[in-house]
Specification:
433 residues; mainly alpha; two-stranded antiparallel sheet; 2 strands; globular
């Protein structure tokens, strides 16, 4: 409650989002204290993904909310908000205390086990008892992701996924200026001196030699990185601690997401929670290495993943019709697997797998649109004259050949674009303040 009030009073957008996340994690704690670990797990995962999405959007917005005058109307708005909140709370309390019949949820535990063949009431409700609702929800998720992508993408949305090999010598997350070479560019510049013994005073390097040195640099960096696309990062944008943590956690998180998928019918988890864990693992890769690292982690189109998930869920619901059943009807298969023990397999697992893929595709689509695509647009918009960056790369290599270090490359890149004159600060301006 304190975090919610502080979020409403915050003037900085990022501060408000963080406080809102605190309120969300507090709700997850309430779920856990009330004996609902499945809901608590889902709430924590949803809050984490939502926090990342908010931060990605806030990159393109001002740091502060609009600077409105401190008028007396704020007390009227605060009073109205308190009144509405109090009214809704009273209605909820009175409605719960005015039941005249037993709630239908009392029968859910037994019905979930007898007809859904599972002990996790929440997951059985989602994939069996109220499977039609879940089908509608994942359809809405797919449509929402498609709508967001159509607003962000300025090119063909189904274009080939960008991999680290597509980055070349250009660094990412460099504010669009040619003054920040990537690790690959610096590695290219360093070994040139030993290759140019014919004329050490020359300022030019042949095109084929540049390409050969680029391949050598990529090979030398292959065993010196923690993540796949580390060579594409500008040096000042790297966080080695985050890269190491990503290397250690990513595969464990993916395995844990699959565990949640298969165990969700009888224990906390399910396709939705498992998909969110996998999505957070992909988010970690993006935050550690940028858009090229995301392409290395998931070299597949997000729309394909979401479409496959929806197709799998719908197909799992239609299969019972072929055996004389009803749509979305579930069945159980029990068999003795010898050393593996007794296996109890419920057909709703296929429906849950569809949910799992839809959620992964949704998170991947959000990262590709609000993350990678906005990064690409910012880089394109920031480089006003691409020929300067191209000339600067050649100059950096030549400088490296003369000095035998990366200092010449950095100096050449820094001098390629003149710096903008500093604007005098004005304390009355909100962004200066």
């Amino acid at each position: 409650m304190v975090a919610a009030v502080a979020a409403a009073r915050s003037r900085r957008r990022l501060k408000a989002v963080l406080l809102l996340g605190v309120s969300g994690y507090g709700v997850a704690l309430l779920y856990e204290l009330q004996g609902a670990p499945d809901l608590a797990l889902t709430q924590v995962l949803v809050e984490t993904v939502t926090l990342v999405v908010f931060v990605l959007v806030l990159r393109r917005l001002p740091a502060y909310f609009s600077n409105r005058p401190l008028a007396d109307s704020r007390w009227l708005r605060a009073g109205l908000g308190i009144a509405v909140g109090t009214l809704v709370s009273l209605v909820a309390v009175l409605a719960l205390s005015s039941r005249v019949a037993a709630p239908v949820s009392e029968y859910f535990p037994q019905e979930a086990y007898d007809h859904g063949y599972g002990k996790n009431i929440v997951n059985v409700t989602l994939v069996d008892i109220r499977a039609w609702d879940t089908m509608g929800e994942i359809s809405v998720l797919l449509v929402a992701a498609t709508g967001v992508a159509s607003l962000i993408f300025l090119r063909v949305r189904t274009a080939r996924v960008e991999r680290a090999s597509d980055a070349g010598a250009r660094g990412v997350w460099t504010e669009g200026t040619p003054g920040s070479p990537s690790l690959l560019a610096l590695a290219q510049a360093a070994p040139v001196r030993s290759e140019t013994t014919a004329d050490p005073n020359t300022d030019t390097v042949s095109e084929d030699k540049i390409q050969r040195l680029a391949r050598q640099a990529a090979t030398s960096l292959r065993n010196q990185r923690w993540i796949s696309a580390a060579a594409t990062l500008a040096p000042q944008r790297r966080s080695v601690i985050l890269e190491i943590a990503t290397r250690l956690l990513f595969h464990t998180m993916m395995v844990f997401s699959v565990f949640l998928l298969f165990s969700g019918h009888n224990a906390p988890g399910g396709g939705f929670a498992g998909g969110l864990v996998a999505g957070i693992a992909l988010t970690l890769r993006y935050l550690a290495g940028g858009r090229y690292e995301l392409g290395e982690a998931a070299p597949v189109n997000a729309g394909v993943v979401m479409g496959l998930g929806l197709f799998l869920s719908a197909g799992a619901g239609l299969v019972p019709l072929l055996f004389g059943g009803t749509i979305l009807e579930s069945a159980v298969v029990e068999l003795d697997a010898g050393p593996l023990g007794h296996i109890k397999f419920v057909t709703t697992l296929f429906f849950d797998m569809g949910v799992y893929l839809v959620v992964i595709g949704l998170v991947l689509d959000v990262l590709r649109t609000l993350g990678a695509e906005l990064d690409r647009q910012a880089e394109v918009a920031g480089t006003a004259r691409p020929e300067i960056a191209h000339d600067a790369s050649r100059e950096a290599v030549a400088a490296g050949s003369r000095t035998g270090s990366t200092a010449g490359a950095t100096a050449a890149w820094s001098s390629a674009e003149p710096a903008e004159p500093a604007r005098p600060t004005d304390p009355t301006r909100e962004e200066d303040a």
